[in-house]
Write a structure and sequence with these properties.
It is a single chain. The chain has 118 residues and is mainly β. 0% of the residues lie in helices and 54% in strands. Strands 2, 4, 5, 6, 9, 10 and 11 form a 7-stranded mixed sheet that branches.
Length: 118
């Protein structure tokens, strides 16, 4: 059974940085396209960053140039490096894995809270 566990959230001042981690257990991470999503109360969940295939990445316009998604296959972990954080980045960030062999199989982590405030 595939499980995703996120860590690294917390409280940070505007302009600061955080790195989120998501460990995938149960299968090799190279079998999955990985993504980070975020959600705030009353708003729809939005895709923040994705890493697919051989490592191609894609970002939401709101985070381009500030966030970087990366993957360490040896550690079965995907990261989200967040720099120049803004109050509007405050959200619950969740990790998502979609099977490359069968996209019907998708998994979510429990989420980690990121709060950007002075």
């Amino acid at each position: 059974q595939v499980q995703l566990v996120e860590s690294g959230g917390g409280l940070v001042q505007p302009g600061g940085s955080l790195r989120l981690s998501c460990v995938l257990s149960g299968r090799g991470i190279s079998l999955y396209d990985m993504a980070w999503y975020r959600q705030t109360p009353g708003k729809q969940r939005e895709s923040v960053a994705t890493i697919i295939g051989g490592g191609r990445t894609n970002y939401a316009d709101s985070v381009k140039g500030r966030f970087t998604i990366s993957r360490d296959t040896a550690k079965n972990t995907v990261y989200l490096q967040m720099n120049s954080l803004k109050p509007e980045d405050t959200a619950v960030y969740s990790c998502n894995a979609v099977s490359r062999l069968n996209p019907r199989y998708t998994y979510w982590g429990q989420g980690t809270q990121v709060t950007v405030s002075s």
